[in-house]
Design brief:
Length: 351
């Protein structure tokens, strides 16, 4: 072999080796780029949640992510979104972000709609409007759409309610609800919880009182409004059940306050007692057409498991402890009422 041939062979080998190294380097760079685009950390710590509204497009999602700085590199996010087909498969919801999430994990979460439900703690709000306003702040559905359903005779009657008593369906409790739930699906969820609560045993107890679940809840709302302390609820429930059995007016001050729609009243006066309202139990016999507040579960159970007593009258204790003096006769009640009125006067409480 000549020197020229040997040199040519060496050059060829060097060329092949260089070409291989270049190919390996290019593949390595592509591999690293691919890895970083898909698996590398990209989500920032600017926001804990990404909210995607119902009807949002990919452009809406991208603009939100870009404007709020939710990812460090929007280009790789967009590249991943297009490559995984997310641009035409947007799902609304509340999505929990973690600092350092990769584009792959983020897109997979959005693609599958793996949102984090909202932990909603429903307390016994006084009015339907209070409840709707609270839910409107917690969920995507606005308060107006919720209250419109609750006030719709045609809608609520399919569940066996009227706009007056539909509020008895909402039970104070802790619920896990998807942020983007529609108002109708929210209603259905609450109704399902209501149906679970009213077991055959509870319905049987209600029937034993000549009441149905709705009427039990209406009475429970009055008991709840009267009782500052839960341990007094069964006693108050027993008193009101005694009045119902005797065909007496309930004469419950909280119903008068509800009828007046003035919840600053601390002392019910004669002018309030003559308010012409179906909720004024000083004027009308029996239960009002709906609850005067969202009754607590404790109050409902207090009615179902009421204390058997002979009480007909009650009056707040003069020590302002929140407890009541109970009586079986008018004469004893007048003594109790005088003591409380005197205490009000001494504290200059006029209304």
């Amino acid at each position: 072999m000549s020197t020229q041939q040997a040199s040519s062979g060496t050059t060829l080998r060097k060329f092949i080796i260089a070409s291989v190294l270049i190919i390996v380097l290019v593949l390595a760079i592509k591999g690293i780029t691919y890895y970083l685009r898909y698996y590398g950390p990209n989500v920032s710590d600017k926001q804990e949640y990404l909210f995607i509204h119902t009807g949002a497009t990919y452009n809406d999602v991208y603009n939100t992510i870009r404007n709020q700085g939710l990812v460090n590199d929007t280009t790789t996010f967009s590249w991943t979104a297009h490559n995984k087909g997310y641009t035409h498969r947007v799902k609304p919801g509340k999505y929990h972000l973690h600092k350092g999430m990769s584009n792959r994990d983020l897109i997979n979460m959005l693609l599958t709609g793996r949102q984090e439900p909202v932990n909603v703690i429903i307390k016994n709000f006084r009015l339907k409007e209070n409840f709707a306003g609270f839910m409107g702040k917690k969920l995507e559905s606005d308060s107006l759409s919720i209250i419109n359903l609750l006030d719709s005779t045609r809608y609520v009657q399919q569940f066996g309610f009227t706009p007056d008593n539909v509020y008895t369906m909402v039970l104070p409790n802790t619920y896990k609800i998807n942020w983007n739930v529609s108002s109708k699906k929210l209603f259905s969820r609450l109704y399902n919880e209501y149906e679970k609560f009213w077991t055959p045993e509870r319905k049987q107890k209600a029937a034993g009182l000549n009441l149905n679940p709705v009427k039990v809840s209406i009475l429970a709302s009055i008991v709840d409004a009267e009782a500052l302390h839960d341990n007094e609820m069964p006693t108050i429930a027993g008193l009101y059940l005694n009045r119902l059995k005797k065909g007496m007016k309930l004469e419950a001050d909280p119903t008068v306050i509800f009828a007046a729609h003035d919840f600053t009243i601390h002392r019910v006066l004669k002018k309030q007692l003559i308010i012409n309202s179906p909720y004024n139990t000083y004027m009308h016999t029996g239960l009002p057409p709906g609850p005067i507040m969202m009754p607590s579960i404790n109050a409902i159970n207090a009615v179902l498991n009421y204390q058997k007593n002979d009480y007909i009258y009650m009056c707040a204790k003069e020590d302002f402890s929140g407890y009541h003096n109970f009586a079986t006769t008018v004469s004893q009640h007048l003594i109790n009422a005088h003591k409380f009125q005197k205490a009000l006067n001494e504290r200059n409480i006029k209304r």
